[in-house]
Amino acid sequence: xxxxxxxxxxxxxxxxxxxxxxxxxxxxxxxxxxxxxxxxxxxxxxxxxxxxxxxxxxxxxxxxxxxxxxxxxxxxxxxxxxxxxxxxxxxxxxxxxxxxxxxxxxxxxxxxxxxxxxxxxxxxxxxxxxxxxxxxxxxxxxxxxxxxxxxxxxxxxxxxxxxxxxxxxxxxxxxxxxxxxxx
Length: 183
Fold this sequence. Notes:
Layout: H1 13-18, H2 20-31, H3 37-49, H4 51-60, H5 62-65, H6 69-86, H7 95-114, H8 122-141, H9 149-156, H10 160-169
Helix pairs in contact: 2-3, 4-6, 4-7, 6-7, 8-9, 8-10, 9-10
């Protein structure tokens, strides 16, 4: 497909998610062109048509990092361009299955690099969850009395040192950057 045959009108947001085959055709038309001005024009058209996808994904991150939606949209557009440039239609995967994680990853990287969040190791995150559940359960049993780390340790099956580490980590500003969730 030549760039002139790519429709110039933007794809409406509803069409983006209802027609993945059409999106694949558009992106394949760019991937099949050799580098040069013709490919650049085609890439710009496809990027413009898929911007509602980038805007929708950026909107899911709006409350996560306190960033302005327009800034997140710019980062999502960068991820979209990277996805269009790096997509290989010969691998047999739909473009959206490649683009959405690429755009999301770009947004997560942006938020991680610009935020003061500390990324806790998975083991500590899991221990925090277990400690929190055990503490809640013990407080209900004792009608509000705060359980000791030893009691929590026994209830959740973690060593007391792990319980204390998990409890210390609760005061830090921590979190994994996830769409639509507060850290």
